[in-house]
Write a structure and sequence with these properties.
There is one protein chain. With about 150 residues, this protein is mostly beta strands. It has one domain (about 5-150): 60s Ribosomal Protein L30, Chain: A, CATH 3.30.1330. Helices cover about 5% and strands about 60% of the residues. It has one helix at about 30-40, and strands at about 5, 10-15, 20-25, 45-65, 70-75, 80-90, 95-105, 110-130, 135-140, 145. Strands 1, 2, 3, 4, 5, 6, 7, 8, 9 and 10 form a ten-stranded mixed beta sheet that branches. A hairpin with a 2-residue loop joins strand 6 (about 80-90) and strand 7. It is flat. Keywords: DNA-binding. One of its GO terms (molecular function) is DNA binding. This is DNA-binding protein.
């Protein structure tokens, strides 16, 4: 088993064979920090999952009829019951596509596409990189980035 510890500005990680365990620093922006991580490690395809707590989150909802996005920011302490997503290459850059489920103090939940969230407590993630490059391009019919396996 090969183990390596890695340090970034907003994150620290342990690589165990080909899998990464990643911890974000308190008050880090999740998408910003994890994007820095995947670019630093040159991950071009893979899966990510995580849990933690945040004090603010901006979610996005896609309206298929209008092909427009609605963004909404929630500023309150929330538990991250799940973040899941993938890593791909868009316009030549490693990018993350993540969805999040958040638990509120009153035990209701919020969910959606994660634009950004600020860690307040913990941010714990597991990355499962794939030994390939997964390219996404914008589909003109839907306005959404989809995998293009021809590239």
């Amino acid at each position: 088993m090969e183990i390596q510890n890695i340090q970034g500005k907003q994150w620290s990680a342990r690589k165990v064979d080909h899998i990464y365990i990643v911890s974000l620093k308190n008050y880090s922006n999740i998408v910003e920090a994890l994007t820095d991580f995947v670019q630093h490690q040159n991950i071009q395809a893979g899966e990510v999952s995580g849990i933690g707590a945040v004090s603010e989150a901006t979610l996005r909802f896609f309206n298929f009829k209008t092909k427009t996005y609605a963004d909404r920011t929630f500023k309150e302490q929330m538990e991250v019951s799940n973040i899941s997503g993938n890593v791909s290459v868009i316009n030549g850059t490693s990018s993350l596509h993540m969805h999040i489920t958040l638990g509120r103090e009153d035990y209701t939940a919020l969910a959606g596409h994660l634009l950004e969230a600020k860690v307040h407590g913990a941010g714990e993630f597991i990355f499962y990189p794939l030994d390939t490059k997964a390219v996404k391009i914008k589909d003109e019919e839907t306005g959404i980035n989809f995998y293009d396996f021809e590239q």
